[in-house]
Request: fold
Amino acid sequence: MLRDLLDWWDGVELWLTQLSFPFQVLLAVLVLLPGCWLASAGIDNAVDRILRAVAARRSAGAAEPAEPGPAADGPDPAAELPALPADAPAVPDTVPDTVPDRSRPEDRS
Reply:
């Protein structure tokens, strides 16, 4: 039975390769467009079902908080910096601000 199927498929391939190119293209379009459309519809339905199942599972788990809680208090990062010596020179800011800082009164417009 499998041998008969393979012989039939070989005959189809031989017939297709003996057609002229425009007919090969037309036949490929007539076969591939519906096949691709069916495949994409099937994938779309599968993804919809998976997303609905995930949404249902999330809505069923009411124990999860809607928003994260407050951040845990940790050490102050500024407290870990070493103190500068009293005679340290001031370093000028040589990089100009390209984006205005709206928190400073002089940058507000």
